[in-house]
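C-alpha cells for chain A. Residues wanted.
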C-alpha cells in the first residue's frame, strides 16, 4: 500500500523557513501567519518522524535532516517556477560564468551537464578551466570550483564533492605492487602539494619510502602519466571513476585519505546572482544523493 503524498503547503513552508532561517520572514513571503507556518512545519515533522529545526532566540537553525532535504526541495521549486515561466513564454536565459578546476570539469561536471541543462534551460553556462589558481575579480567570473580546505579569505565557500585520495597506476605496474612498501622501488608522480604522498604513506603504515618523481600542476596530467606507465599517482578517486572502471587505471591498495574537497566559491563582497544560486543548489542536491565514504 503506497503512502499518501506529503502536503505541498507544508513542504513550501519548510523550504521558505529553511531559506530565510527565520519563521517570521518565511510567513511574510508566503502571506500566512507565523502560527499557521509553524503548524505546517510541525505537521511535516510528524509525518517525517524527524525534527527539522532548532528554535533559537532569533530565527531557527537547520537540523542535519533538514540540511539534507533543503537543497533538493529548493531546486525542485526552482524547476517548477522555470517550467511555469517557459509555459507562459516569460523565461529568459541568464549567463553564468564559472572557473572550473580541470579535474572536476572532466571527471565530474561534464558527464552531468546535460542533467543540469535539462532542468535549468534558462541558465547559459560559460566554463573556463584552471589548475586551482584563479582570481575571480580580475577574470570576470561569477564563481569558481576549486580544491582545498575551504579556507579562502574573502570567499563564500560551499562544499560540493568529497573524495578520497589513493595511489593509482597502470595495470602492468600494479601487478608488481604487493604492499605499500613496494612503492620504495617505484616512481611516485607528484603534484605541487608536497605533503600529499607523505600523508598517504603514513596512513598506509609505509612512512619509509621517499616521494621522488616528476611534479605536475594538474591531476589530469598526473593521471595521463600514470596510465602511460610512468609511475604511481596519488589521485582523487571520485574524479577518475571512469578510468578505474575501464581498467586504464588500477588502485593497487585500499587505503584512501581525505586531503580536501571540491568547493564552489564566490566573492563575499558581491551578491549571489540568481543563476549562480540555482547552480549552487543543484550542486548541493547532487552532493546529497552521494553517500559518504569512510576512509
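Reply:
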Amino acid at each position: 500500500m503506497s503512502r499518501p503524498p506529503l502536503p505541498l503547503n507544508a513542504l513550501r513552508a519548510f523550504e521558505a523557513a529553511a531559506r530565510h532561517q527565520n519563521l517570521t520572514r518565511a510567513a511574510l513571503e508566503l502571506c500566512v501567519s507565523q502560527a499557521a507556518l509553524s503548524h505546517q512545519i510541525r505537521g511535516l515533522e510528524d509525518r517525517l518522524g524527524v525534527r527539522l529545526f532548532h528554535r533559537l532566540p532569533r530565527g531557527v537553525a537547520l537540523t542535519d535532516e533538514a540540511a539534507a532535504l533543503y537543497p533538493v526541495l529548493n531546486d525542485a521549486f526552482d524547476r517548477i517556477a522555470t517550467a511555469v515561466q517557459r509555459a507562459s513564454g516569460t523565461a529568459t536565459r541568464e549567463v553564468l560564468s564559472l572557473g572550473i578546476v580541470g579535474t572536476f570539469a572532466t571527471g565530474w561536471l561534464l558527464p552531468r551537464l546535460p542533467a543540469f541543462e535539462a532542468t535549468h534551460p534558462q541558465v547559459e553556462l560559460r566554463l573556463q578551466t584552471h589548475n586551482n589558481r584563479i582570481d575571480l575579480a580580475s577574470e570576470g567570473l561569477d564563481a569558481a570550483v576549486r580544491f582545498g580546505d575551504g579556507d579562502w579569505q574573502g570567499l563564500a565557500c560551499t562544499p560540493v564533492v568529497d573524495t578520497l585520495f589513493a595511489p593509482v597506476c597502470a595495470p602492468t605496474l600494479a601487478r608488481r605492487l604487493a604492499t605499500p612498501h613496494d612503492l620504495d622501488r617505484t616512481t611516485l608522480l607528484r603534484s605541487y602539494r608536497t605533503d600529499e604522498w607523505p600523508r598517504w604513506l603514513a596512513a598506509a603504515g609505509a612512512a619509509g619510502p621517499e616521494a621522488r618523481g616528476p611534479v605536475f600542476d594538474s591531476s589530469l596530467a598526473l593521471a595521463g602519466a600514470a596510465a602511460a606507465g610512468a609511475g604511481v599517482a596519488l589521485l582523487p578517486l571520485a574524479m577518475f571513476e571512469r578510468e578505474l572502471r575501464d581498467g586504464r587505471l588500477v588502485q593497487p591498495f585500499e587505503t584512501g585519505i581525505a586531503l580536501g574537497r571540491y568547493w564552489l566559491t564566490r566573492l563575499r563582497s558581491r551578491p549571489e546572482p540568481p543563476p549562480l544560486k540555482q547552480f549552487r543548489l543543484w550542486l548541493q542536491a547532487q552532493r546529497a544523493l552521494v553517500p559518504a565514504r569512510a576512509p
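The chain has a mean pLDDT of 87. The longest helix spans residues 64-88.
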